[in-house]
Amino acid sequence: MKLNFKYTKNDRLVTNSFMARDMRNNKLKYVWLTCFTLILSFGCITQMSSAHSPKFIDLKFYLDDQILSIYYVHGVSNTSYHFIQTVEIEFFNISTEFFDTLDKPIDKIVEADVLEMYLIELVVFNATYTEQHDDTADTQDTLIVHDNITVTDYIPTLNVTYWTYIRVTAYCNLGGNFTQNALAGQIWYDIEHSMIEAVVPTLVCAVVILTPLVIWVIIGKQKQKREITQEVTQ
Amino acid sequence: MTLAENKDVNPIEQAMVTQDFKERPKHRYSKIHVFIIVFMAIQVLFLLTFSEPLSILWGGHPLFAIYNDNVIDRSARLIMIYHSLANPFVVANTFWIMEYYDTRDKFIPWLKWTMVPGAFFSGICGLVFAYTRWRFFHELFYIGLFLIFIGGVLFIAAVFPIPGKFPDPKKATKGSLLFGLNLENYSLVILAFCVLVSTIYAALAAIENFTGGIGEFLSQFALNREPDAFLAEEVVKILHHDWVEEFIVSHLHIQLALSSAMVVMIGYKTSGIQGWVYSIILWINPVGLITISYGAWVLNHYLIWVGAGLLIINTTLMAIQGWIKTSKDHYEALGDEYKKLSARKRIRGIFSDSVKFSLYFIYLYAQIVVTICGILVGLKTREVYRLHEWMQVEYDFNVGHWHLLAVLIATLLLLSAIDHFQRRKGILRSVAGWFLGIGGFIAFSGANWYMLRNPLANKYIPMYITFVGVWILIIGFAFGIINILISYRRRDR
Predict the structure, then answer these.
(1) Cβ–Cβ of B226/A210 closer than 8 Å?
(2) A60, A63, A66, A71: CA torsion to nearest 10
(3) Which pLDDT does position B59 carry in this prediction?
(4) Of A29, A47, A53, which has the smallest distance from its Cβ to B211's Cβ?
(5) Which ipTM value was assigned to this complex?
(6) Tell me: the pLDDT tens digits for B405-448?
(7) Chain A residues lying within 8 Å of B210, measured CB to CB
(8) How much is the CA Rg of chain A, to the nearest whole Å?
(9) In chain B, where are the structural domains located?
(10) In 10 A of CB B155, how many CB atoms?
(11) What is the pLDDT of residue B67?
(12) Contact criterion met (CB below 8 Å) for B436 and B410
């Protein structure tokens, strides 16, 4: 069989006009999308972040050596331009009132239990820096800075004892600060969790997801049964 | 006697009769795949100018002096950088899913129109903002995110299964149907839903952090935070998180896990898994997805591990099936004789295709270096990793864990892409496959050694081993991308 396709001049014109319309529509889509984007972009107003505060401080006081070990989480790109400039270190005694009001074992005390009202200031001193330690072989060190502060270097008479409350505030030279507290000889622990906590939510998740499927299986089986009965009766 | 068997018939006509006519898909995504791969490769090339494994070669400093903390805080810059990379990756993942799973035709143009511009807007503008802090680009970056989010909503509508009607039950993979309901698409809907919820989490946290907008409307959520960009790993040790910190930690946890789940779902199709094993996988998959997501939303590690454990079962089954298929494909000419082959020969068949071998090997190895190690560290967090002396190690683990997973799923996606574009075995394909497999093995092992080290141990040995692995991976990526481009051009012609 021979197939003949012949385009007339009119056909071609019609095709061309359709193509032109398609292209015009496509162009219009682009124009609309661009306009929509531009309008929305000028309309969105967000506040610009400007702080450079250290993000976290981890403290531990070694009673035997009278050393305060501090880890600062403060990521910087240029360690001599952007660094933790001043660290304020405060030592407090906790008033006996606190222990009187305590209604739980002493080893169960958490950070939130030690309130400002029970603190008696003992001593305050500052440590100052002109740059952040940098180790070019490992740029991680510009993220976390470690410092050991021997308290007797600052205040020779100071003897930090068990249960002394320590507060450290680190100030960034470009602005922002972060404060962290610790108890000499104590660790702040996260709340303890257990595997049991996962059982009920897992079951709930499984039930939520599988219920539609199980219902569908029941419906499907009934449908199948009905179809078989119909076939048998026919 | 059929027309094809009739020897009197002209051989040309006979060939025409016996020819298989495959239905051409109405929509093709090759161009989108290639464009996003090239775009992301360019982004990564730029990131390599300051990445530690490479910068060590030229003195440990970034190649360009464009890092000014006074312009933008380091954490804020990093957040923008990895979002500019993560968004195109999620879009790429979505189109790979659409390549293998049924999507309603009428939604496809809309998905293209929202997700592709979204990927490029967020990818380009996020990166520009990260270094210039030009506000306009930040808003364009938001538009990109918004377009991708809309794309996600449309994706749910596009894949939503209707029993017996959509997807076409006649074309369904064996084991994927449950009385006409396609379980693959059911999983896809759950997956997309979880991704969208997780993005809403991040959006709410960002709004409250930078504008205080949530607190203005709902006073019980007001935090009056200083607008400060922070990375999840920086605040993870804070004992009492506010909800913004919790949401950000949750977002980082789950978004990457769900991206991995997307890559695993691509693996279900490439591995050719089917039958009752596939049925089991498809029953477990949505439960695993929702459990891991819910665990991250409420920050319950145990729940995350249960979800991850369920997905481990699926990935392991899929990867083993992938290896079996690779071996069978190698001995395709033998037909049923394959069953008579010795175990040694069958195993040799697995190594016959470097791309497929590496692909399924990394799927399996990921379970050890990411999931199981993550669970082990999680179990020891309170008693060991949270101790003051372990501070640096825990931070390194928190950073390394998601870096590793991100590189791993990128490697998996590239291997799948090489296999998709270049079906014929050739030198370039083979070299790319081996480099990616071996590089991945060395890099991921070294990184795990580095992350799980004792705080007093020398960290430089595992660090340099990781670097060597990364160098090999980079060569593999280069070969892989060249391979894809050549195959795409050849196919285009």
Answers:
(1) no
(2) -10
(3) 82
(4) A47
(5) 0.81
(6) 999 999 999 999 999 998 777 899 999 999 999 999 999 999 99
(7) 46-49
(8) 35
(9) 357-493
(10) 25
(11) 85
(12) no
Return the pLDDT at A102: 72
DSSP-derived letter for residue A136 is T
What secondary structure does DSSP assign to B26-48, as a single string? S---HHHHHHHHHHHHHHHHHHT
Least Cα distance to B192 among B150, B249, B232 occurs for B150
User: Residue B318 in contact with residue B271, Cβ under 8 Å?
Assistant: yes
CB B439 within 8 A of CB B476: yes
Domain limits for position A132: 56-183
Report the distance separating Cα A23 and Cα A19, nearest Å: 6
CATH number (domain holding residue A77) = 2.60.40
A207 lies in some domain? no
DSSP H or E segment with residue B421: helix B391-421
Chain A residues inside the 8 Å CB shell of B291: 201-202, 205-206
**Residue A95 to chain B, least CA–CA distance (Å):** 24
Domain count for chain A? 1
Whether residue A113 is contained in a domain is answered as yes
pLDDT of residue A39: 64
Cβ neighbours of B301 in A, within 8 Å: 193
Residue A179 lies in a domain: yes
Which residue on chain A is closest to B382 by alpha carbon? A190
Per-residue pLDDT, A3:
47
Ranges of chain B with pLDDT below 70: 1-26, 492-493
From residue A214, alpha-carbon distances to A203, A206, A209, A211, A219 in Å are 15, 11, 9, 5, 9
Residue B284 contacts by C-beta under 8 Å, 6 or more apart in sequence? Answer: B310, B311, B313, B314
Q: What is the mean pLDDT of each run of 10 residues along chain A (234 residues)?
A: 50 60 71 68 55 87 92 88 92 82 68 71 88 60 82 89 91 91 79 81 92 92 90 88
- Answer left, alpha or beta for residue B22, where phi above 0 means left and psi between -120 and 50 means alpha: beta
Helices (H), B167-211: 183-211
In sequence order, the β-bridge partners of residue A90 are: A124, A167
**Distances B91 to B82, B116, B118, B152, B407 between C-alpha atoms, Å:** 14, 7, 8, 9, 16
Residue A16 placed within a domain? no
Q: Which two tokens stand for residue A182?
A: 């610790």
Provide the angle, in degrees to the nearest 10, between the axes of the packed helices B243-270 and B391-421.
Answer: 30
Phi first, then psi, for residue B225 (nearest 5°) are: -75, 155
pLDDT of residue A2: 47
B167 cis-preceded (ω within 30 degrees of 0):
yes
Task: Identify which of B234, B303, B395 has the shortest CB distance to residue A201.
Answer: B303
pLDDT in tens, B30-55: 999 999 999 999 999 999 999 989 98
So what's the pLDDT on residue B420? 93
B291/A78 CB distance under 8 A:
no
Task: Give the Cα separation of A58 and A60 in Å (integer).
Answer: 7
pTM for this model (two decimals): 0.87
